Amino acid sequence: MQKISVTYKLPEEGLRLLRRYDLKVNAEDRFLSKPELIDFAYNADALITLLSDQIDREVIERLENLKVIANYAVGFNNIDIVAAKERGVVVTNTPGVLTEATADLTMALILATTRRLVEGDRFVRRGLFDGWKPELLLGVSLKDRVLGIIGLGRIGKAVVQRAKAFGMKVVYHNRMPASKKEEKALSVEYKSLEDLLKLSDVVSVHVPLTKETRHLIGSSRLKLMKPTGVLINTSRGAVIDEQALIQFLRERRIFAAGLDVFENEPEIPYALRELDNVVLLPHLGSATRETRMEMALMVARNVIAVLNGKRPPNRVV
Ligand code: DGY
Questions:
Q1: CATH code at 161?
Q2: I want to staple 248 with a disulfide (CB 3.0 to 4.6 A). Which of 26, 122, 253, 258 is the partner?
Q3: Separation of 71 CA from ligand 1 center, angstroms?
Q4: Co-location of 56 and 109 in the same domain
């Protein structure tokens, strides 16, 4: 019987589809270290992974029977896809099903930062609210403000739709500009990355993490942002140079940041945690019950396809 190893418990809807195989699920509420993972998945035909599992060349080479690595995420920067390809191991991801949830969370961070929701909550809990005041915790209006989207993929586009409903103007930067027809349909304008940073009141990052996008936003680019500007990241932490961002937030050289992702997750520098002009979330982009269930179904279908000698619906390599 073919063996499937799952590194962390997933929603039952997905696991149920896999019970006709020899299914092994890490039942502990903790991530496996690399040696534990190799041991756990030894002899597995299929491996289901989280974005926190580092599936490097050594892991791939040690798991000699492996036919497929199905990542429970749309991003797959945790997997050495070159090594997987060389060994003929298929890699799959979960695109599409988490677009709306991640775009919703991006909008939530835009609202939380521009309207200082978390500061307001802390203020009330500390017992400091002693009545309505004309200039208490003033934020920034969204109407007619410019939103700069870096990465106009599925999630970037879904954020555009939401921002339009708030009356924002949208500019974007993408490796390949969209067609004129699509720009018109979305009512967005292409800008160079530098112009986008100079022009935007809110900048939102939606690119995958690759060699090219690591530290895409560092000091020299943060410098271009308006002092009233807000930076949002729901993609991958390392796209932003976290130390540079801390410095800009500390010196109030930008107004605020909203971060769902961090450079060295789950570590979040104390210097970032002590700032009040940043909203920090524990990587919740796709965290709705519906979305996580869809993702579980998707990884299960990808695994089943490969184990049956078919092309999986969401093949990356
Ligand atoms: C992903 O899928 O890549 C997200 O970061 C987690 O859902």
A1: 3.40.50.720
A2: 253
A3: 9
A4: no
In angstroms, rounded to a whole number, what is the distance separating the alpha carbons of residues 55 and 137? Answer: 45
Domain that holds residue 70: 3-96+289-307
- State the distance from the centre of ligand 1 to the C-alpha of 142, rounded, in angstroms: 27
Lining ligand 1 with CB less than 6 A are 51, 73-75, 98, 285-286
Q: Is residue 183 part of a domain?
A: yes
Same domain, 135 and 256: yes
One domain, residues 87 and 164: no
Ligand 1 atom closest to the Cα of residue 72 is 2
Contact by Cβ (8 Å): 198, 169: no
**Phi, psi dihedrals of residue 31, rounded to the nearest 5°:** -80, 155
User: How far is residue 8's CA from residue 53's CA, in Å, rounded to a whole number?
Assistant: 10
Tell me which residue has its CA closest to atom 3 in ligand 1: 75
On whether residue 312 sits in a domain, the answer given is: no
Co-location of 216 and 197 in the same domain: yes
State pTM to two decimals.
0.97
pLDDT means over runs of 10, the chain (317 residues): 98 98 97 98 98 98 98 98 98 98 98 98 98 97 98 98 98 98 98 98 98 98 98 98 98 98 98 98 98 98 98 98
* Residue 235 alpha carbon, nearest atom of ligand 1: 5
Residue 70 falls inside a structural domain? yes
CA of 75 to the centre of ligand 1 (A): 6
- Known catalytic residues? 236, 265, 283
What are the DSSP calls for 39-77, one per residue?
HHTTT-SEEEE-TTS-B-HHHHHH-TT--EEEESSS--T
